Amino acid sequence: MKKVLCINDLSCIGRCSLSVSLPILACQNIEAVPLPTAVYSMHTGYSGHISICNDIDQIVQSWNNLKLKFDCIYSGFLKNQIQIQTVKNLIVKFDCPSFIDPCFADGGQLYDGYDMGYVEHFKSLIVGADVILPNITEACFLTGTKFKQGIDTKRSAEDLAKKLLYIGVKSVVISGVCFDNASMGAVLASSSGLQYFSHAKIEGAFSGAGDILSSIFVGQMTQKKGIEQSLKTALRLTVKALSLTKNCDFGINFYGILQDLINLD
């Protein structure tokens, strides 16, 4: 069985982060080893949440005698610059493919608790990464590009993806790209060029959609399905999960796609 080191936060209430990634990876026949960067009482979309920041260095040190090996490292929410450095060290230590989901901004703004110093430090993490999976806002911050609401995000995503490749990322998947008034999806950029993956636009705010997309994508990539097929599968099943969600107050209903994941070839 493939083994993935899954680095992310854990929200006790709200379907996102590790509470999403672990079952999604498990249903793809992958052992996901969690490394929780923080524990939240509920995801940050709720007011009144509290968090505990984990010293992940201590957790990693306790593994030193276990002779662990991983097929890939999948990194999501990181709380501070110290954790960024720890993940950089882990990528070197385990010498395996790395998939980086930035998880620090959306809607043109950084999440609470982040600043440009964090972003500058984060840039060093993505250099040499096999795939990074930012949204439009995160791609703007990582490339020093001004975010503009309502612009042609397809053209913007193309430009952002090229800039990220220039920084030293091997492949880029930018999500949340609007192609026209009726469709949206993702732009994939690699040394092979640009590719576009679209689906019908779904209105609404869905906290945790990025976690679902990235977790399916990483699982498929770990199973050697190829980057294009992995992204197609991830988008298709993420859209299905969104369509199954009648009330997103407590997160997206990803349980409805778990059988689909089990049945994938």
Molecular structure report:
- By secondary structure, this protein is α/β, with parallel strands linked by helices.
- It contains 9 helices and 11 strands.
- It has one domain: Ribokinase (UDP-N-acetylmuramoyl-L-alanine:D-glutamate ligase, 3-Layer(aba) Sandwich), CATH 3.40.1190.
- The strands form 2 sheets. Strands 3-2-1-4-5-8-9-10-11 form a 9-stranded mixed β-sheet, with helices on both faces. The protein has a two-stranded antiparallel sheet with strand order 6-7.
- A hairpin with a 2-residue loop joins strand 10 and strand 11.
- The two termini are 15 Å apart.
- The mean pLDDT is 91.
Calculate the terminal CA-CA distance, rounded to whole Å: 15 Å
Instruction: Name the overall outline.
Output: globular
CATH class: Alpha Beta
Work out the radius of gyration: 17 Å
Count all strands and give the number. Answer: 11
Describe the structure concisely for a colleague:
By secondary structure, the protein is α/β, with parallel strands linked by helices. It is built from nine helices and eleven strands.
Task: Write out key terms for the chains shown.
11 strands; alpha/beta; 265 residues; UDP-N-acetylmuramoyl-L-alanine:D-glutamate ligase; two-stranded antiparallel sheet
SSE arrangement:
Blueprint: E1 2-11, H1 18-26, E2 30-40, E3 51-53, H2 56-62, E4 72-75, H3 81-94, E5 98-100, E6 105-106, E7 109-110, H4 116-126, E8 131-132, H5 136-143, H6 153-167, E9 171-178, E10 183-190, E11 193-200, H7 209-222, H8 227-244, H9 258-262
Parallel strand pairs: 1-2, 1-4, 4-5, 5-8, 8-9
Antiparallel strand pairs: 2-3, 6-7, 9-10, 10-11
